[in-house]
Protein backbone atom coordinates (compact mmCIF):
# COMPACT_ATOMS: atom_id res chain seq x y z
CA UNK A 1 0.00 0.00 0.00
CA UNK A 2 1.38 3.40 -1.00
CA UNK A 3 2.15 5.78 1.83
CA UNK A 4 0.18 9.00 2.11
CA UNK A 5 1.85 11.94 0.43
CA UNK A 6 3.18 14.72 2.63
CA UNK A 7 1.46 18.05 1.95
CA UNK A 8 3.57 21.21 1.76
CA UNK A 9 1.97 24.64 1.27
CA UNK A 10 4.18 27.61 0.35
CA UNK A 11 3.23 31.28 0.35
CA UNK A 12 6.18 32.51 -1.68
CA UNK A 13 5.83 36.18 -0.82
CA UNK A 14 8.02 39.06 -1.94
CA UNK A 15 8.40 40.21 1.66
CA UNK A 16 7.81 37.08 3.74
CA UNK A 17 8.08 33.36 3.08
CA UNK A 18 5.59 31.13 4.86
CA UNK A 19 5.71 27.34 4.73
CA UNK A 20 3.03 24.97 6.00
CA UNK A 21 3.73 21.24 6.39
CA UNK A 22 1.01 18.73 7.23
CA UNK A 23 1.49 17.45 10.74
CA UNK A 24 3.85 20.31 11.61
CA UNK A 25 1.75 23.43 11.01
CA UNK A 26 3.44 26.64 9.85
CA UNK A 27 7.12 25.81 10.13
CA UNK A 28 8.48 29.08 8.75
CA UNK A 29 7.23 32.66 8.77
CA UNK A 30 10.14 35.02 8.22
CA UNK A 31 11.40 37.57 5.66
CA UNK A 32 12.13 36.27 2.14
CA UNK A 33 15.85 36.98 2.39
CA UNK A 34 18.93 34.76 2.17
CA UNK A 35 22.60 35.58 2.79
CA UNK A 36 25.51 33.87 0.99
CA UNK A 37 29.24 33.60 1.44
CA UNK A 38 30.48 35.13 -1.84
CA UNK A 39 33.49 32.81 -2.13
CA UNK A 40 31.98 29.45 -1.17
CA UNK A 41 28.35 30.19 -2.22
CA UNK A 42 27.23 28.59 1.05
CA UNK A 43 24.15 29.94 2.79
CA UNK A 44 25.13 31.88 5.89
CA UNK A 45 21.65 32.82 7.07
CA UNK A 46 18.05 33.01 5.97
CA UNK A 47 14.86 34.71 7.06
CA UNK A 48 15.09 37.10 10.00
CA UNK A 49 18.85 36.57 10.46
CA UNK A 50 19.54 37.45 6.82
CA UNK A 51 17.10 40.37 6.92
CA UNK A 52 19.12 41.95 9.75
CA UNK A 53 22.13 42.04 7.38
CA UNK A 54 20.45 44.11 4.64
CA UNK A 55 22.40 47.30 3.96
CA UNK A 56 25.20 46.20 6.29
CA UNK A 57 26.94 43.53 4.22
CA UNK A 58 30.56 43.67 3.01
CA UNK A 59 32.31 42.26 -0.05
CA UNK A 60 32.42 38.72 1.36
CA UNK A 61 28.67 38.51 2.01
CA UNK A 62 25.83 38.82 -0.49
CA UNK A 63 22.29 39.34 0.78
CA UNK A 64 19.57 38.53 -1.73
CA UNK A 65 15.79 38.84 -1.99
CA UNK A 66 14.84 35.97 -4.32
CA UNK A 67 11.48 37.51 -5.26
CA UNK A 68 10.50 40.81 -6.78
CA UNK A 69 6.92 41.97 -7.38
CA UNK A 70 5.57 38.54 -6.52
CA UNK A 71 7.73 36.53 -8.93
CA UNK A 72 11.09 34.77 -8.69
CA UNK A 73 13.91 37.06 -9.79
CA UNK A 74 16.80 34.87 -8.54
CA UNK A 75 16.14 31.13 -8.90
CA UNK A 76 19.37 30.05 -7.18
CA UNK A 77 18.62 32.24 -4.16
CA UNK A 78 15.01 31.00 -4.00
CA UNK A 79 16.16 27.38 -4.08
CA UNK A 80 18.78 28.05 -1.40
CA UNK A 81 16.21 29.76 0.81
CA UNK A 82 13.73 26.86 0.62
CA UNK A 83 16.52 24.35 1.25
CA UNK A 84 17.52 26.39 4.31
CA UNK A 85 13.91 26.28 5.57
CA UNK A 86 13.41 22.55 5.07
CA UNK A 87 16.73 21.67 6.69
CA UNK A 88 15.40 23.28 9.87
CA UNK A 89 12.67 20.65 10.08
CA UNK A 90 14.46 17.45 10.96
CA UNK A 91 11.67 14.98 10.15
CA UNK A 92 11.14 16.20 6.58
CA UNK A 93 13.60 14.22 4.52
CA UNK A 94 11.79 12.54 1.63
CA UNK A 95 10.52 15.23 -0.72
CA UNK A 96 9.92 12.67 -3.47
CA UNK A 97 6.74 11.55 -1.70
CA UNK A 98 5.28 15.03 -1.23
CA UNK A 99 2.63 17.23 -2.80
CA UNK A 100 3.62 20.89 -2.94
CA UNK A 101 1.24 23.82 -3.40
CA UNK A 102 2.79 27.19 -4.25
CA UNK A 103 0.64 30.32 -4.06
CA UNK A 104 1.23 33.12 -6.55
CA UNK A 105 -0.32 36.50 -7.51
CA UNK A 106 -3.30 36.29 -9.83
CA UNK A 107 -1.72 37.76 -12.95
CA UNK A 108 1.69 36.09 -13.08
CA UNK A 109 2.51 34.75 -16.54
CA UNK A 110 2.67 31.09 -17.47
CA UNK A 111 6.46 31.41 -17.69
CA UNK A 112 6.57 32.78 -14.14
CA UNK A 113 4.33 29.94 -12.93
CA UNK A 114 6.66 27.42 -14.56
CA UNK A 115 9.60 29.03 -12.76
CA UNK A 116 7.83 28.46 -9.45
CA UNK A 117 7.03 24.86 -10.38
CA UNK A 118 10.65 24.27 -11.43
CA UNK A 119 11.79 25.59 -8.06
CA UNK A 120 9.91 22.81 -6.23
CA UNK A 121 10.99 20.18 -8.77
CA UNK A 122 14.63 21.17 -8.24
CA UNK A 123 14.05 20.59 -4.52
CA UNK A 124 13.13 16.99 -5.37
CA UNK A 125 9.35 17.43 -5.17
CA UNK A 126 7.65 15.82 -8.18
CA UNK A 127 3.96 16.58 -7.47
CA UNK A 128 3.61 20.38 -7.69
CA UNK A 129 0.65 22.62 -8.41
CA UNK A 130 0.08 26.38 -8.38
CA UNK A 131 -2.88 28.29 -6.94
CA UNK A 132 -3.72 31.99 -6.77
CA UNK A 133 -3.08 33.76 -3.48
CA UNK A 134 -6.55 35.27 -3.27
CA UNK A 135 -8.09 31.79 -3.42
CA UNK A 136 -5.95 30.46 -0.56
CA UNK A 137 -6.32 33.74 1.35
CA UNK A 138 -10.12 33.60 1.16
CA UNK A 139 -10.12 30.08 2.62
CA UNK A 140 -7.66 31.15 5.32
CA UNK A 141 -9.98 34.04 6.18
CA UNK A 142 -12.78 31.56 6.89
CA UNK A 143 -14.77 31.98 3.68
CA UNK A 144 -16.48 28.96 2.14
CA UNK A 145 -15.39 29.61 -1.44
CA UNK A 146 -17.02 26.34 -2.54
CA UNK A 147 -20.52 27.70 -1.96
CA UNK A 148 -22.50 29.35 -4.80
CA UNK A 149 -22.38 32.65 -2.89
CA UNK A 150 -19.68 35.01 -4.18
CA UNK A 151 -16.86 36.42 -2.08
CA UNK A 152 -14.60 39.37 -2.94
CA UNK A 153 -11.04 39.58 -1.62
CA UNK A 154 -8.46 42.36 -1.62
CA UNK A 155 -5.04 40.90 -0.78
CA UNK A 156 -2.46 43.66 -0.13
CA UNK A 157 0.85 41.83 0.01
CA UNK A 158 4.49 42.87 -0.19
CA UNK A 159 5.00 42.87 -3.96
CA UNK A 160 1.47 42.85 -5.36
CA UNK A 161 -2.13 43.64 -4.49
CA UNK A 162 -4.63 41.10 -5.82
CA UNK A 163 -8.35 41.80 -6.10
CA UNK A 164 -10.69 39.00 -7.04
CA UNK A 165 -14.17 37.49 -6.88
CA UNK A 166 -14.58 33.81 -6.01
CA UNK A 167 -17.52 31.42 -6.31
CA UNK A 168 -18.05 27.66 -6.58
CA UNK A 169 -14.50 26.89 -5.54
CA UNK A 170 -12.54 29.03 -7.97
CA UNK A 171 -11.64 32.55 -9.05
CA UNK A 172 -14.31 34.05 -11.32
CA UNK A 173 -12.24 37.10 -12.19
CA UNK A 174 -9.25 38.90 -10.72
CA UNK A 175 -6.80 41.72 -11.30
CA UNK A 176 -3.35 42.32 -9.87
CA UNK A 177 -1.38 45.52 -9.42
CA UNK A 178 2.27 45.77 -8.44
CA UNK A 179 1.49 48.40 -5.85
CA UNK A 180 1.74 47.02 -2.32
CA UNK A 181 3.91 47.04 0.82
CA UNK A 182 7.31 47.35 -0.87
CA UNK A 183 6.00 50.10 -3.15
CA UNK A 184 4.84 52.03 -0.07
CA UNK A 185 8.35 51.70 1.38
CA UNK A 186 9.88 53.12 -1.80
CA UNK A 187 7.45 56.04 -1.79
CA UNK A 188 8.42 56.81 1.83
CA UNK A 189 12.11 56.78 0.80
CA UNK A 190 11.36 59.24 -2.03
CA UNK A 191 9.33 61.49 0.26
CA UNK A 192 12.01 61.67 2.97
CA UNK A 193 14.64 62.33 0.29
CA UNK A 194 12.61 65.17 -1.24
CA UNK A 195 11.14 66.83 1.85
CA UNK A 196 13.80 66.15 4.49
CA UNK A 197 17.01 65.94 2.40
CA UNK A 198 17.77 62.59 3.95
CA UNK A 199 18.75 59.30 2.29
CA UNK A 200 17.29 56.30 4.11
CA UNK A 201 17.16 52.55 3.45
CA UNK A 202 14.14 50.32 2.88
CA UNK A 203 14.30 48.86 6.39
CA UNK A 204 14.05 52.35 7.91
CA UNK A 205 11.12 53.16 5.63
CA UNK A 206 9.38 49.93 6.58
CA UNK A 207 9.82 50.64 10.30
CA UNK A 208 8.29 54.09 9.84
CA UNK A 209 5.38 52.56 7.92
CA UNK A 210 4.70 50.00 10.64
CA UNK A 211 4.93 52.59 13.40
CA UNK A 212 2.88 55.52 12.07
CA UNK A 213 1.10 54.58 8.82
CA UNK A 214 -2.61 55.38 8.92
CA UNK A 215 -5.59 56.12 6.71
CA UNK A 216 -7.80 57.27 9.59
CA UNK A 217 -9.41 60.65 8.96
CA UNK A 218 -9.78 61.63 12.61
CA UNK A 219 -6.71 60.40 14.44
CA UNK A 220 -6.82 61.22 18.14
CA UNK A 221 -3.12 61.95 18.39
CA UNK A 222 -0.56 62.48 15.65
CA UNK A 223 2.20 59.88 15.90
CA UNK A 224 5.86 60.41 15.06
CA UNK A 225 8.53 58.05 13.73
CA UNK A 226 12.20 58.90 14.18
CA UNK A 227 14.19 57.96 11.05
CA UNK A 228 17.98 57.92 10.73
CA UNK A 229 19.90 58.21 7.49
CA UNK A 230 22.56 60.16 5.61
CA UNK A 231 22.18 63.91 5.12
CA UNK A 232 21.96 64.77 1.43
CA UNK A 233 23.98 68.00 1.87
CA UNK A 234 26.62 67.24 4.49
CA UNK A 235 26.92 63.50 3.91
CA UNK A 236 26.80 62.96 7.69
CA UNK A 237 24.38 60.78 9.69
CA UNK A 238 21.23 62.62 10.80
CA UNK A 239 17.75 61.88 12.13
CA UNK A 240 14.37 63.38 11.28
CA UNK A 241 10.86 62.94 12.64
CA UNK A 242 8.18 61.85 10.17
CA UNK A 243 4.56 62.22 11.24
CA UNK A 244 1.57 59.98 10.64
CA UNK A 245 -0.01 62.84 8.67
CA UNK A 246 2.97 62.84 6.27
CA UNK A 247 2.70 59.09 5.78
CA UNK A 248 -1.02 59.47 5.13
CA UNK A 249 -0.33 61.85 2.24
CA UNK A 250 1.90 59.12 0.76
CA UNK A 251 -0.68 56.36 1.31
CA UNK A 252 -3.75 58.08 -0.12
CA UNK A 253 -2.78 58.01 -3.84
CA UNK A 254 -1.49 54.45 -3.42
CA UNK A 255 -4.77 53.24 -1.96
CA UNK A 256 -6.62 55.17 -4.65
CA UNK A 257 -4.78 53.01 -7.20
CA UNK A 258 -5.88 49.88 -5.32
CA UNK A 259 -9.45 51.20 -5.17
CA UNK A 260 -9.40 51.73 -8.93
CA UNK A 261 -8.52 48.04 -9.40
CA UNK A 262 -11.41 47.10 -7.10
CA UNK A 263 -13.72 49.31 -9.20
CA UNK A 264 -12.59 47.47 -12.33
CA UNK A 265 -13.28 44.06 -10.77
CA UNK A 266 -16.72 45.16 -9.51
CA UNK A 267 -17.65 46.58 -12.91
CA UNK A 268 -16.81 43.24 -14.56
CA UNK A 269 -18.57 41.08 -11.95
CA UNK A 270 -21.72 39.29 -13.21
CA UNK A 271 -24.96 40.72 -11.68
CA UNK A 272 -25.84 37.67 -9.54
CA UNK A 273 -22.37 37.62 -7.99
CA UNK A 274 -22.46 41.40 -7.51
CA UNK A 275 -25.65 40.95 -5.48
CA UNK A 276 -23.83 38.46 -3.21
CA UNK A 277 -21.00 40.94 -2.65
CA UNK A 278 -23.50 43.57 -1.50
CA UNK A 279 -24.63 41.11 1.19
CA UNK A 280 -21.27 39.49 2.02
CA UNK A 281 -18.99 42.51 1.65
CA UNK A 282 -15.27 42.49 0.95
CA UNK A 283 -12.49 40.67 2.82
CA UNK A 284 -9.09 42.39 3.11
CA UNK A 285 -5.96 40.40 3.97
CA UNK A 286 -2.19 40.69 3.55
CA UNK A 287 0.20 42.97 5.43
CA UNK A 288 -1.47 46.12 4.08
CA UNK A 289 -4.65 45.16 5.93
CA UNK A 290 -2.87 46.02 9.19
CA UNK A 291 -2.72 49.75 8.39
CA UNK A 292 -5.24 51.56 10.63
CA UNK A 293 -8.16 52.97 8.67
CA UNK A 294 -8.06 50.50 5.76
CA UNK A 295 -11.54 49.17 6.57
CA UNK A 296 -13.03 52.67 6.83
CA UNK A 297 -11.23 53.83 3.67
CA UNK A 298 -12.53 51.04 1.45
CA UNK A 299 -16.03 51.27 2.92
CA UNK A 300 -16.10 54.99 2.12
CA UNK A 301 -14.71 54.57 -1.41
CA UNK A 302 -16.61 51.43 -2.46
CA UNK A 303 -19.85 51.84 -0.45
CA UNK A 304 -19.71 48.19 0.58
CA UNK A 305 -19.16 46.50 3.96
CA UNK A 306 -15.50 45.56 4.54
CA UNK A 307 -13.97 43.07 6.97
CA UNK A 308 -10.30 42.76 7.86
CA UNK A 309 -9.42 39.09 8.31
CA UNK A 310 -8.29 38.06 11.80
CA UNK A 311 -5.03 36.65 10.44
CA UNK A 312 -4.00 38.93 7.55
CA UNK A 313 -0.35 37.86 7.45
CA UNK A 314 -0.96 34.09 7.53
CA UNK A 315 -4.35 33.74 5.78
CA UNK A 316 -2.82 32.56 2.48
CA UNK A 317 -0.63 29.80 3.92
CA UNK A 318 -3.43 28.67 6.25
CA UNK A 319 -5.69 28.35 3.24
CA UNK A 320 -3.27 25.90 1.64
CA UNK A 321 -4.43 23.22 4.13
CA UNK A 322 -7.77 22.86 2.33
CA UNK A 323 -6.33 23.22 -1.16
CA UNK A 324 -3.71 20.55 -0.46
CA UNK A 325 -6.41 18.16 0.66
CA UNK A 326 -8.19 18.28 -2.69
CA UNK A 327 -5.58 19.81 -5.03
CA UNK A 328 -7.90 22.73 -5.67
CA UNK A 329 -10.70 20.55 -7.06
CA UNK A 330 -14.25 21.79 -6.56
CA UNK A 331 -15.67 18.28 -6.93
CA UNK A 332 -13.36 16.75 -4.30
CA UNK A 333 -14.30 19.42 -1.77
CA UNK A 334 -18.01 19.43 -2.68
CA UNK A 335 -18.29 15.70 -2.02
CA UNK A 336 -16.80 15.98 1.48
TrEMBL record:
Q: Keyword annotations for this protein?
A: ATP-binding, Cell shape, Cytoplasm, Nucleotide-binding, Oxidoreductase
GO process terms (BP): cell morphogenesis; regulation of cell shape
Record keyword Oxidoreductase present: yes
Q: Name one GO molecular function term.
A: ATP binding
Q: Which GO cellular component terms, listed alphabetically, does the Swiss-Prot or TrEMBL entry include?
A: cytoplasm
Q: Which SUPFAM superfamilies match?
A: Actin-like ATPase domain (SSF53067)
Per its UniProt record, what InterPro entries does this chain match? ATPase_NBD (IPR043129), MreB (IPR004753), MreB_MamK-like (IPR056546)
Residues of the signal peptide: none
Q: What does the protein in this record do?
A: Forms membrane-associated dynamic filaments that are essential for cell shape determination. Acts by regulating cell wall synthesis and cell elongation, and thus cell shape. A feedback loop between cell geometry and MreB localization may maintain elongated cell shape by targeting cell wall growth to regions of negative cell wall curvature.
Similarity section: Belongs to the FtsA/MreB family.
Its protein name is Cell shape-determining protein MreB
Organism from which the protein derives: Haloplasma contractile SSD-17B
Q: Taxonomic lineage of this organism? A: Bacteria, Bacillati, Mycoplasmatota, Mollicutes, Haloplasmatales
Amino acid sequence: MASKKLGIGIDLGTTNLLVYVEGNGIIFNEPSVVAFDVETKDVIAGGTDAFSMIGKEHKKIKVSRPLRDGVISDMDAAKAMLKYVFERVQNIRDFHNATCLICCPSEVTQIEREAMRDLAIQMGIKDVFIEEEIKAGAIGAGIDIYSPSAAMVIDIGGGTTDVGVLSLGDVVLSHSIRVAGNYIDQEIIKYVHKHHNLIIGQKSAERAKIKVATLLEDEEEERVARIAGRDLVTGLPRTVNVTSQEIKTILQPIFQDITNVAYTVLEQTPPELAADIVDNGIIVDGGGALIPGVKEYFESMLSLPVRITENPLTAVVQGTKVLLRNKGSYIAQHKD
